[in-house]
Write a structure and sequence with these properties.
By secondary structure, the protein is mostly helical. It folds into 2 domains: about 170 residues, no CATH class; about 70 residues, no CATH class. About 70% of the residues lie in helices and about 0% in strands. The protein has 13 helices and no strands. The chain is flat, with a radius of gyration of 20 Å.
Length: about 240
């Protein structure tokens, strides 16, 4: 009983400790403002004047390709970048080079406004911070501020790097007991960016039993149309980049 109570108190101590740093993070970096940009710079992060710079091409591709035209070929709308430059005149939007699933998802909202993009940027940051908080709570709470306030983590957040959502897609399903869910979400992560598919071998080695492997295979099979579409898109994006020099 005594050990049980000690374990419970340790859990709450870790939770409170992490919550304090979550509050600090939210205070410093949650809003998109000049003050937030200066906060990033104080942590040696070369912040841009327009937050989420790495993901602006998703916003712009969704705006300029409502007719489902080829996302990877910039049209006049994309070159003008009107919804972004109206708010950030000096913004430079890179060519779109993600799998098309990102744009397909963004187009569901039918909204190219800065307000929606900032909400997406905040959600992307929340996804990364949430998974770091979970892993720290489970394994070592002391490392939480070291990881969260690391310039590399903060740069990923400031740029809106989509790997933040990717980590959530990869790790969150591990909370579920279903190996089918593990396989499906790993496949989904691979459709969003190909490299998570290399984790399949690790997942199978961690589940060597035949039934577990079969369940993972079923989950991957369910995600296979998305994986195939993503693989074709990635090939096209690489070809276009090679042609452009």
């Amino acid at each position: 009983m005594k050990n049980h109570n000690q374990g419970r108190w340790r859990f709450w101590a870790r939770l409170i400790y992490i919550s304090v740093f979550l509050f600090i993070f939210n205070t410093l970096f949650h809003q998109a403002s000049d003050k937030t940009r200066k906060n990033f710079e104080a942590f040696n992060v070369p912040a841009l004047n327009h937050p989420g710079g790495d993901a602006r091409n998703i916003q712009l591709a969704a705006h300029c390709h409502q007719d489902d035209s080829d996302y990877y070929i910039p049209n006049e709308c994309y070159r003008a970048a009107e919804p972004i430059k109206q708010v950030h005149p000096n913004a430079i939007v890179p060519p779109f080079n993600y799998p098309s699933l990102w744009v397909d998802f963004y187009k569901v909202f039918n909204d190219s406004s800065e307000k929606l993009f900032i909400s997406m940027w905040q959600a992307n940051a929340l996804a990364l911070i949430a998974i770091i908080a979970y892993l720290a709570l489970k394994y070592n709470a002391l490392i939480f501020p070291v990881i969260v306030f690391n310039p590399i983590t903060l740069l990923a957040i400031e740029r809106g790097n989509t790997d933040a959502v990717l980590l959530m897609v990869v790790f969150a399903p591990l909370l579920l007991p279903s190996r089918i869910a593990h396989g499906f979400f790993l496949g989904l992560a691979g459709a969003l960016k190909i490299y998570p598919l290399f984790a399949i071998a690790g997942l199978i080695l961690a589940s060597p039993h035949e039934k577990a492997i079969m369940a993972i295979a079923i989950g991957l099979l369910a995600a296979s149309p998305l994986i195939i579409q993503s693989a074709l898109n990635n090939s096209q994006a690489i070809d276009l980049q090679c042609v452009s020099g």
